[in-house]
Design brief:
Layout lengths: L1 E4 L17 H8 L17 E10 L3 H14 L12 E6 L11 E9 L2 H18 L17 H5 L9 H22 L16
Helix pairs in contact: 1-2, 3-5
């Protein structure tokens, strides 16, 4: 998932209220859900697996170090219980070709367990569309679907790798496994996930 700050622009009145652009303010705002570029359903167990912050502007590396210490002290980021809590930071210079009113801007690339809620919504939407046979009209033109869409429903038992319905259901199964994996990431015994010892349902 990504975050960006500060949002500024002549057309956006609310963006003009961003005044502080110190390294700490930028890194703190990157962790706030309102600055994320994806809408996820928050929950109490959601945590970061890894974070990369790309800070652009005139930045002193000691400011970055102090900001990281402050973030740890205030516990602004909830990390996985089974691994190290680290925020990687890359510093870049400001572009001479793009004028900006702020001194520092930031982009965050993070692996967060709440992204599973996005995948869950996607699976729910797929199931609703499939129940209604929505957007399947184009498939009737294909010979294998001329008598109905049973191929979609029987795809798990059919062993044709290049079959469209098999591919769709294989994708669905992959996303379901991804959901289980993200849920397991939130538990302290994730290291033994997949071995049968500490699997989380």
């Amino acid at each position: 998932m990504t975050s960006y700050t500060p949002f500024t622009g002549d057309q956006i009145d609310q963006a003009k209220s961003t005044r502080k652009t110190t390294v700490l303010d930028v890194m703190r705002r990157l962790l706030q859900p309102k600055n994320r570029m994806v809408s996820t359903t928050p929950n109490k167990t959601a945590c970061y697996i890894s974070i990369l912050n790309i800070i652009q502007g005139n930045v002193d590396p000691t400011d970055v170090h102090q900001s990281l210490l402050r973030i740890r002290e205030r516990q602004l980021a909830n990390f996985i219980p089974w691994g190290p809590a680290s925020i990687q930071v890359a510093l870049t210079r400001k572009s001479p070709y793009i004028p900006a009113s702020h001194r520092v801007s930031g982009l965050m690339l993070a692996n967060h367990t709440s992204i599973a809620s996005l995948f869950k919504r996607m699976l729910d939407q797929y199931d609703r569309l499939r129940r209604r046979n929505a957007f399947l009209e184009q498939y009737k033109k294909e010979k294998m679907f001329e008598n109905g869409y049973e191929e979609f429903d029987e795809a798990r038992s059919v062993r044709r790798a290049y079959h469209l319905s098999c591919a769709l259901n294989h994708c669905r199964a992959t996303v379901e496994e991804l959901l289980r994996e993200y849920k397991a990431c939130e538990s302290p015994d994730y290291i033994s996930y997949g071995t049968g010892e500490g699997d989380v349902a």
